[in-house]
Write a structure and sequence with these properties.
This protein has 91 residues and is mainly alpha-helical. The chain is built from one helix and no strands. The chain is 63% helix and 0% strand.
Length: 91
């Protein structure tokens, strides 16, 4: 038969073990969360870098050689295009 106080000691060890397990669980959860945050930040930085490069290429294209721009000649056999704000229905 256990002496008085032994049950408390065993219970105290179980509580300590449960707390240690919870502590380990929390540490692991924080580690995983931190890794995910770093991965997302790296992906966002790469996305911004690619967007900056694409914007630079677009600006270079817009700042290209000055002068008259070539105008496409309409296809002689095709239908004439309507102005942008003209209605597209017949009524």
């Amino acid at each position: 038969m256990p002496r008085s106080g032994e049950g408390v000691l065993v219970l105290g060890e179980e509580v300590c073990q449960a707390a240690a397990d919870a502590d380990d669980y929390c540490r692991e959860a924080l580690r995983i969360s931190g890794e995910m945050m770093m991965s997302h930040m790296q992906a966002a930085a790469q996305h911004l870098s690619q967007g900056r490069e694409q914007l630079a290429r677009t600006m270079d294209r817009l700042d290209g050689p000055a002068g008259p721009t070539p105008v496409e000649q309409p296809d002689p056999g095709g239908a004439a295009a309507l102005p942008r704000n003209a209605p597209r229905w017949v009524g």
